[in-house]
Design goal:
Oligomer: homodimer
Structural class of chain A: alpha/beta
CATH topology of the largest domain in chain A: TIM Barrel
CATH class of the largest domain in chain A: Alpha Beta
Shape of chain A: globular
CATH architecture of the largest domain in chain A: Alpha-Beta Barrel
Largest interface: A-B, 82 and 82 residues
Radius of gyration of chain A: 22 Å
């Protein structure tokens, strides 16, 4: 790794003013370099050491920038970016049943998913996300788009029993999903998960079938759980137990189970999460905007639960900026716990990177800038007036709108963003396509809001 | 106003794709123009009408932009931008007593206030604020800086009895403040307020003196109130009453009284606010970050209380981006009230503009784009990928990081920002000065955070 005489030829050397590796914890190095070869990190060292050690094919000099691992957005419905702000200021149940689901039934096809997923990926790359967990219809199309764009993704194939845009039986959805899983089983950037919508929209019979596959194939399970108080009441009424207990009894509460939302958490729920080492995905902006409730982030962290972060879909957020989501998560954790020392900055940054990778079962490959991991990294400008003076880099990253200052992004060593320009997507054609979808969806509406 | 034959010569015509006037309420006009002459708005009309009516000295063509009133940031300590992120993750009492106040005692002089206020104004102009309410030491210096920069401000002269950086008796602070009030009494852009720190740091005797001046001179009163539960307990213990009741009995609960924070509100407090038509300034990010409590925004609005918005100082935020603050306020209002329909987008935008102007007693002059008001306006780019597709302009303004997309700003018709470039401040010299202050304040510290 550290040749003493002849410099080694490597693909890429990224020199930066600051490097925040996430591991080792709470460290920031100055005037450092990230050496990348064959998709992976081969060295993290001072710029002066790197100079002697490496002859890179491509070299970056980012002397006003900080390099850190790319962010991991653990829950969204990517294609719903085409419905951004389409129905605002409405509670979850009527938002889904009266607005989103009917529209999806009428509209969603493979073209919608292709264009919407591209739009979402463009927005995520530009704001620092290099890996995301998706949950939407036509997962075959999403997987193709992800492959073409070069971003990293866990694609969850949807499973619904209730009326939905799927227009298919649960059996058929599972069958298609397992085929997809097989197609991508050796792909470095794509992982397939099963994504039953929620316990209120998928039957126990279907969930039981999924439990078998999840256990046999070590398939990640991605599911909305305990999003609202109403969901808990309904489950208790219908099944005599809370959704988490139901999932447990069915055999779906696994270490690879990703429980999205969890705004309703009692002591029994915490014990189940601890016992089964399941993952919790916190989506604070969506929970606030739909008035769904408050996930007790600080408390769950104290209890040893792995907490990751998601934006949820742009239709309920209205953006996919994970830095903005992280700021909300940290502020809310302090407010809700009544403890200003809760969620210090380094811990928050870890939640949006390494802990997110862990939630997706990818912690050995990404989430920190360590030798041997994939080179999934981002560069952020740190010399704007909004960041001065810079006493505490971690705190400034967290609280001052860093998503708008991301200038570079690499996934497995490949540049997806350079000097704020997308490399694998055409921004103006994406904007054009989004505007065409808007004209199709609401032909006569002037976009003024209520 | 509407000449039919000869076009009128005017100073400035701003043509834009969309215009959000705030008044009339919930309206957005397309392909509109704002006509400005001698500092004031002389017309709001379609671009085609404007073409026939006016011959402007300066004309803007902002066809990808939205124009709206500049934001009103109703509470900050501008010069504290030099302490941005200096002491994070600490509760209010020890944050003030162990970190901020000792540092201010050692450090704060007129140079600090000049450089810090300039830095704050630069950041605010770049993120859409055209008017702010300041509360800090050396208000004479702040007033000079504000005058030189051309922004609009209510400068509150500080009054403290407890130990502070003032190093002066309360009498002397009041005397200086009233002189300042006299100096600026005819200035269009500057208004002087008295700013007693809080009931726990200013004696009843001093507050009584201020009540006399406030009533005689119609002086605005700007005061921290009900920021934490501890403040209420201490006041009840010491005075037998809550701070709001104390202010009332002293004669300081007036229509021009601006109560900052109000995280602790009971029914008696609400009745006092209603009876005296006092103003409440909500600073949600500071309240969350210091774990101070939750101001019941939606409830107070329902009760008819005028609610305005403030960022608080950069030392407890860590930025001065009022769009980001507004997003937090709207999300939190929905979450806290449990009502997804609370704080719809147009109502939120009004809080950050016209209701803010009202809190400062400036609603006849600014806060909406209406004929006769001062031309305090901003332009925001609306064609980025993060905003597509655009179904609901108000909602996208509110939820998708608009502060980073402000490109132009005018105060009383004068351009302070053009194409994202500051016109009355030098950005690079501000960054240099901030870095010098950092070196002085923490000579040996590497800015890595804990």
């Amino acid at each position: 790794m550290h040749p003493t005489k002849t410099p080694a030829e490597i693909d890429t050397l990224i020199n930066c003013r600051w490097l925040l590796p996430i591991m080792p914890e709470s460290q920031i190095y100055e005037n450092f370099s990230l050496a990348v070869h064959q998709q992976r990190i081969v060295d993290v060292c001072s710029q002066s050491e790197a100079k002697g050690r490496y002859t890179p094919t491509t070299e970056y000099h980012l002397n006003d920038h900080l390099i850190m691992p790319g962010l991991v957005n653990c829950h969204l419905h990517a294609a719903m970016s085409l419905l951004r702000g389409y129905a605002d200021d409405i509670p979850l149940k009527s938002w889904l049943e009266k607005h989103i689901w009917p529209l999806e039934k009428r509209l969603v096809n493979s073209d919608f998913v292709r264009d919407g997923t591209r739009l979402a990926i463009a927005e995520m790359i530009k704001s620092g996300t290099t890996c995301f967990a998706d949950m939407y219809f036509h997962p075959e199309t999403s997987a193709e788009v992800v492959r073409d764009c070069g971003i990293r993704s866990q694609i969850g194939f949807p499973v619904f029993d209730l009326a939905s845009a799927a227009g298919q039986t649960a059996e058929s959805q599972i069958h298609r999903g397992l085929q997809l899983h097989d197609t991508f089983k050796d792909h470095a950037l794509i992982k397939i998960a099963c994504a039953p919508h929620a316990t209120y929209s998928v039957s126990n019979k279907t969930l039981t079938t999924l439990a078998t596959y999840a256990n046999e194939l070590d398939l990640p399970v991605h599911i909305h759980a305990h999003e609202t108080a109403r969901e808990i009441l309904q489950s208790t009424h219908q099944h005599g137990q809370r959704p988490l207990q139901l999932l447990h009894d069915i055999g779906l509460l696994l270490p690879q189970t990703q429980l999205v939302h969890m705004t309703q958490v009692d002591d029994g729920d915490i014990r189940l999460l601890q016992d089964h080492k399941s993952q919790v995905i916190h989506c604070p902006q969506s929970n606030l905007k739909l008035a769904s409730g408050f996930c007790p982030l600080a408390k769950l962290l104290d209890m040893g639960v792995n907490m990751a972060l998601g934006t949820d879909g742009a239709a309920s957020n209205n953006d996919l900026d994970l830095f903005s989501e992280l700021q909300t998560a940290a502020l809310l954790a302090k407010g809700i716990s009544g403890n200003a020392a809760a969620m210090p900055a380094h811990k928050a940054l870890r939640m949006a990177t390494l802990d997110g990778a862990k939630a997706l079962g990818w912690q050995a490959e990404i989430g920190s800038l360590e030798i041997g991991k994939y080179a999934d990294a981002i560069a952020i400008k740190m010399n704007t007036i909004q960041q001065q003076p810079l006493y505490n880099i971690a705190s400034q990253l967290l609280y001052t709108n860093s998503g708008s200052r991301v200038t570079h992004s690499w996934v497995a060593g490949k540049a997806l963003l350079k000097d704020s320009k997308l490399q694998s997507l055409n921004e103006s054609s994406l904007i054009h396509s989004a505007q065409q979808w808007r004209s199709k969806i609401v032909p006569d509406q002037f976009p003024a809001g209520q």
